[in-house]
Amino acid sequence: xxxxxxxxxxxxxxxxxxxxxxxxxxxxxxxxxxxxxxxxxxxxxxxxxxxxxxxxxxxxxxxxxxxxxxxxxxxxxxx
Amino acid sequence: xxxxxxxxxxxxxxxxxxxxxxxxxxxxxxxxxxxxxxxxxxxxxxxxxxxxxxxxxxxxxxxxxxxxxxxxxxxxxxx
Amino acid sequence: xxxxxxxxxxxxxxxxxxxxxxxxxxxxxxxxxxxxxxxxxxxxxxxxxxxxxxxxxxxxxxxxxxxxxxxxxxxxxxx
Amino acid sequence: xxxxxxxxxxxxxxxxxxxxxxxxxxxxxxxxxxxxxxxxxxxxxxxxxxxxxxxxxxxxxxxxxxxxxxxxxxxxxxx
Amino acid sequence: xxxxxxxxxxxxxxxxxxxxxxxxxxxxxxxxxxxxxxxxxxxxxxxxxxxxxxxxxxxxxxxxxxxxxxxxxxxxxxx
Amino acid sequence: xxxxxxxxxxxxxxxxxxxxxxxxxxxxxxxxxxxxxxxxxxxxxxxxxxxxxxxxxxxxxxxxxxxxxxxxxxxxxxx
Lengths: 79, 79, 79, 79, 79, 79
What we know:
The structure is a homohexamer of 79-residue chains.
Chain A: H1 17-35, H2 39-50, H3 53-73
Helix pairs in contact in A: 1-3
């Protein structure tokens, strides 16, 4: 059973690209939370990747992938 | 011969984005199970990646990729 | 000249998502076989990646990418 | 709460491919800024990846992914 | 100036998925050839990655990405 | 301010797949140039990745991603 919510609001639709980008970052984080539910361990690991150049770039890669899906869901907010 | 089920329910269609995200995580795990069927070894390796910042980020990258496919299959749950 | 078959059956079309997923795993393996045709070496390398957390995650990433293409080819099995 | 702006102008639409590419680079950087808000630390990490061949290639991979989304949003600037 | 041919036949269209997959492998190799034109060095590096589990998986990832584009170009060979 | 041109000709449209592939390689390089503008440093780093098997594979991965976008922009040169 999956206890962690994986998608806040249970929708990919957002009002703006900025909110879509925030959702991408949250979705990326929630996968990590579901995989490592211990808050203390996750806090330590966050310190690791937030201070490591290669890992920060890896965060960027994942957020880019999540955002691509969200942007498609929102028809790229083209109105 | 492939003994492990790779897609629970044999469908990419889910009722909600949240369930689609759960499916993405399950599909990612089942590839690992099919590649390393030994439960004890997999359990040890899970401890490794759940406590390693770079590997947790790698989990996120894979789930993002699986989810992109599932979201497309569900027409992004746009109704 | 390419001796290894790269796509079993020479088609991306499968009856079900499960079979599509199996095809994704096979296609991923056949690229490795074409790149390293020596069965003994490949067997040793398989032992390496099946027992390494980071490499198992990398397998997952590749299968996800192959599956995205197969799913698109099958119109996501939406009937 | 997300303090960093993640998408300048809150739109994926740009007049030209060149501007779309600049946006891709900015969006990639802003994820890093949101994840590591300390300017001094980020400056040091930038020195690290700007002088490391593998990390520069990783930057390229992320920008490529961001740009794919922006290009799709702009219908590839086909007029 | 680019001396190496990057796409044999200057087309993404192939008669079959198998040929499309072969093209994906060739296109992946030709980028490496264009980046490292020295045959002797490339031969040594090929020995490296053909005998390294992680690098073989990386080959698989790149071929998957090239193939996705070729498959889309061929409308997934759906006739 | 972005001094480096990121997309030569400011268009993703090319006459042929071969030219599209050349553009993909150029676009990948120009991101690196924009991130590391020092020619001498970039020259040294180029020697590093052109002689490293894993990094050459990483170049391939990025070019594949850039090319996917260019190919889509050109409707895969299907006429």
